[in-house]
Write a structure and sequence with these properties.
Elements: H1 11-29, E1 37-43, E2 48-54, H2 60-74
Antiparallel strand pairs: 1-2
Length: 75
C-alpha cells in the first residue's frame, strides 16, 4: 500500500467503509488462482480519492448496498 494523504472525516465511517470494501474484495477474489487487491489514493486539483481496487466480480446491486449508508449520511 502506498502512503496516502491525510483526510478529515468521521473515523468510524471511514473504518467501516474500508472494512466493507476489503471484505468484499477478499470475498470476490477468493476463487481466482491469483488475485489482485490494491489500496491507494490519488490527488487532483480539488480532491483526494481513496480507493480499493480488485479483479473480482461483483454486481451493481452490491455496490448500491455497500454505499447506501454513506449516501444517506452525505445527503
Amino acid at each position: 500500500m502506498e502512503t496516502c494523504w491525510p483526510c478529515r472525516a468521521d473515523a468510524v465511517l471511514v473504518k467501516q467503509l474500508f472494512v466493507n470494501l476489503l471484505s468484499n474484495a477478499f470475498k470476490f477474489t477468493r476463487l481466482r488462482p491469483v488475485a489482485h487487491i490494491e489500496i491507494g489514493c490519488s490527488r487532483t486539483a480539488d480532491e483526494i480519492v481513496y480507493f480499493v481496487k480488485d479483479d473480482g466480480r461483483a454486481s451493481n446491486a452490491l455496490c448500491d448496498k455497500l454505499f447506501g449508508s454513506f449516501q444517506r449520511c452525505i445527503a
